[in-house]
Design a protein that fits this description.
Elements (H helix, E strand, L loop, with lengths): L3 H4 L8 E6 L8 E5 L4 E8 L2 E6 L10 H7 L7 E8 L12 H7 L5 E10 L2 E2 L5 H12 L6 E3 L3 E2 L2 H10 L4 E6 L7 E10 L1 E12 L7 E6 L2 E4 L2 E2 L3 H13 L17 E3 L5 E8 L9 E7 L1
Parallel strand pairs: 1-11, 6-8, 15-18
Antiparallel strand pairs: 2-9, 2-10, 3-4, 3-5, 5-6, 6-7, 10-11, 12-13, 12-16, 12-17, 13-14, 17-18
Length: 296
């Protein structure tokens, strides 16, 4: 009869979460990887088989069944692998907007990009340096060019790597101290640098709350798009306020209830265009800032 210890399943490990920074680290003791636009996933194998868990520990094995089946064919008896589930397009780029439909109708067109390993065949690897864990991971999943992929990395050259990521139109990059252990939760041993976009949006309102920076309510193609912070020098803020007074309007339809309220001055749609800087590949504007404007 097997002992109880041998019958216990491997447990979910709370993921290590990178801090967000504006610029990538440039010293040589960092390694850099592409930040994949998908769902953080933990692939676990033990005596009872493989399973795939979300970043909060929910079992999504049925949605990711082809990756689970592929995981059971890897040359190991037990492992815990950290990675990202993606929906690659024809060029291999992650297409986040295709994730939902593929999970439901075409799971075999998903891919799991493995970027760390915390356990292998009875050994807890979390205290080992990140660069050693990457080597162990590669030896497990190579050639890793199919449904289970390996997250390639480069050592040093953070600024050059980020420039290449921007040119390729990717979401961003993740940098990791090469000697760092795997520690669950937020950490500065891993940092993420995301790429930015700029674009013109309709400014349909301004929200002012005492003690907080003013934010703009913006729309694109007539639909609410987000609430970027207004970051303008005083002279331009005063000019913007003059334009707002000249173009006041009633609250437009389609604004989320959580956004609307008495603290907003509504603006006639189309009267003012805002130049907004925002994070790339986000469904709504995140960390957006209004850097300029023009009146029609």
């Amino acid at each position: 009869m097997r002992s109880r210890v041998n019958r216990d399943r491997l447990k979910f490990i709370k993921p290590m979460e990178p801090a967000q920074v504006e610029e990538p680290p440039v010293s040589d003791d960092w390694i850099h990887e592409i930040k994949y636009d998908g769902f953080r996933t933990q692939l676990i194998l033990d005596w009872a088989g493989a399973r795939a868990l979300t970043k909060t520990g929910h079992d999504w094995s049925k949605r990711y069944w082809p990756i689970v089946a592929a995981g059971e064919k890897l040359p190991a008896k037990a492992f815990v692998i950290d990675g990202e589930m993606i929906a690659p397009d024809a060029d291999g780029r992650p297409d986040f907007h295709a994730m939902a439909s593929r999970m439901k109708w075409q799971a075999e067109a998903l891919a799991f990009v493995a970027f760390d390993i915390m356990h292998l065949d009875g050994e807890d690897l979390r205290a080992r340096p990140a660069i050693e864990r990457k080597e162990i991971l590669w030896n497990l999943v190579k050639p890793a060019d199919g449904i289970i992929q390996y997250s390639q990395h480069v050592a040093g050259g953070g600024a050059e790597f980020f420039a290449a990521v921007e040119r390729m139109g990717l979401e961003g990059m993740v940098s990791k101290r090469s000697g760092s252990p795997y520690k669950s939760g937020s950490t500065e041993a891993w940092v993420k640098t995301k790429c930015w976009e700029t674009g013109d949006f309709e400014l349909i309102g301004i929200k002012r709350v005492p003690g907080k920076p003013a934010v703009g309510i913006v729309a694109r193609n007539g639909c609410y798009a987000g609430s970027p912070t207004i970051t303008l020098p005083k002279q331009l803020r005063d000019r913007l306020q003059q334009l707002v007074r000249q173009a006041r309007a009633e609250e437009p339809p389609g604004v989320p209830r959580a956004i609307a309220g008495p603290s907003i001055e509504w603006i006639k749609p189309g009267a003012i265009k805002a130049d907004v800087r925002y994070l790339r590949n986000e469904p709504k504007l995140r960390h957006g800032t209004i850097r300029g404007f023009k009146a029609d």
